[in-house]
Amino acid sequence: AVRQIPVQYAKQAAGGRAVSTQSARQYLPLKVNAAGVMPIIFAQAIMFIPITVLQYSGAEGDSVSWLITVFGNIQGLWYNLAFAVLIIVFTYFYTAIQVNTNSIADDLKRNGGFVPGIKPGAPTAEFLDTVLSRITFPGSLLLALVAILPAVAMTVGLNTQWAYFYGGTSLLITVGVILDTLQQIESYLLNRHYDGLMKTGKLRGRNTQSTFS
């Protein structure tokens, strides 16, 4: 899913003056989940490292035993809450790395593009940051929900292998591959359609020339 931000480009008119036209309007797509599965991978690493360190360090005590018991149970409430919070945090972090709003705003300004109602430059970057933060939040919640889906499935009594195969990261990767494949097929069909139009136009041009000659 993407949020389409309308972008309008100024065309050079007679006299060197830039004039914006509706025909030059395009859209800037901002993904709801620009981070992909990386937040889940980072969150899993963070969750496993402290437990592993405590187990192999030989530390003792009631608090250590409680931490190992609670956060070592992947079906437990506290484990999944902490896992979900880490996924949300890493989603924002990785999205900020993946999508450089300052660079996008500079490119738009350099090419004569602007978001209607927003000044080019820094105001555009701030606007894109605001929109990206708003659409990233539901995306991060959905990502966290999908990540803890295997634990929920096992809690209600479903088979462990089935839960891990059809849930969590495996589900995201499968859906991602399917969507990428569909996009490639769509691009291929569009290219063939445009190639057909170009060939048809060339044939019509040749027929017209032969008629007049």
Can you walk me through this structure?
This protein is of the alpha+beta class. The chain is 69% helix and 13% strand. It has 8 helices and 3 strands, in the order ββααααβαααα. A 3-stranded antiparallel beta sheet has the order 2-1-3. β1 and β2 (18-31) form a beta hairpin. The mean pLDDT is 77.
Instruction: Encode the helix/strand succession as letters.
Output: EEHHHHEHHHH
Beta-strand percent range: 5-15%
Give the number of DSSP strands.
3
Coarse structural class: alpha+beta
Judging from the principal axes of the Cα atoms, what is the shape?
Answer: elongated
Helix content: 55-70%
Biggest sheet, strands in spatial order? Answer: 2-1-3
The number of distinct structural domains comes to 2
| Overall pLDDT level | 77
Termini separation: 54 Å
Count of DSSP H/I helices: 8
- Sheet with the most strands, sense and barrel status: 3 strands, antiparallel
Indicate the low-confidence ranges by residue numbers.
none
Gyration radius, in Å: 26 Å
Short description:
The protein has 213 residues and is of the alpha+beta class. The protein has 8 helices and 3 strands, in the order ββααααβαααα. Strands 2-1-3 form a 3-stranded antiparallel beta sheet.
Annotate the secondary structure layout.
Layout: E1 2-12, E2 18-31, H1 38-57, H2 62-71, H3 77-98, H4 101-110, E3 113-114, H5 122-147, H6 149-155, H7 160-166, H8 169-212
Helix pairs in contact: 1-2, 1-3, 3-5, 4-5, 6-7
